[in-house]
Amino acid sequence: MRGTNDATMVEERLRELDVRLRGPRRLKSDLLTEARHGLLDAVDAYQEGGLPAVEAQRRAVAEFGSPAQLVPAYQAELAVGALRGLSSRVVVLAAVGLVAGDLTWQGASWSTGGRPPGAYLLLSASMDWLWATLFVLGAAGVLLAGGGRWAPRGAAAGRAVGTALTGVLALAVLTGSALFAWSIGLWEAALTWPPMIVGMVLAAAGHLWLGRAARTWLLAAR
């Protein structure tokens, strides 16, 4: 049976890993829990073989490996999970944006008025292209991260996709913000148009949702 102080060295090694690892919290917790179970099982096995508790812990921790040896493999798995989370969110939000983006304008009192400036139309069209690009990149990220672990070539491809995702996402946020601001400047009634208000609120929430996932990926990939 394990005493209350039997896992002191084990917990210290896990704390060292916890401090150095960056990535999705749930996946990180699962990895550390799996490591804890493996270490405690090793400690039990050594104690059953006749070793004192302290020596059993020391040997189990030594065989498990140092943080310098363990962090790269764990961090690589966290990077996979972070890309999977970011890519899945991008696919969902890009699909919604492509399908529902024009709904904020349909039926508006100004939609039948004069044609907006050409630059405005170009900016509006660029949003469709940006979200289409994000959808493709997100789908690629889901496929790459679907296996759970990467070979070296897969890691390079995953890093490239994740970098492209975060870059295009930042550009889409800036472009979308500029488009909303320009729309309000062209049509003051947009500020009181319910679909426009709902669209702005949902867009802001969606961008924050994606922003958290992008930050997690950047930390995990770094």
Mind explaining what this structure looks like?
The protein has helices spanning 8-20, 25-48, 53-64, 67-100, 118-145, 152-186, 194-221. With 222 residues, the protein is mainly alpha-helical. The protein folds into 2 domains: 8-65, no CATH class; 72-221. The longest helix is centred in the last third of the chain and has 35 residues, at 152-186.
Radius of gyration: 25 Å
Q: Could you say how many structural domains there are in total?
A: 2
Contiguous uncertain segments of 5+ residues? 1-6
Order of helices and strands: HHHHHHH
> What fraction of residues sit in β-strands?
under 5%
Key terms for this structure?
2 domains, 222 residues, mainly alpha, 0% strand
Summarize the structure.
Helices cover 78% and strands 0% of the residues. It contains seven helices and no strands.
Map the helices and strands.
Elements: H1 8-20, H2 25-48, H3 53-64, H4 67-100, H5 118-145, H6 152-186, H7 194-221
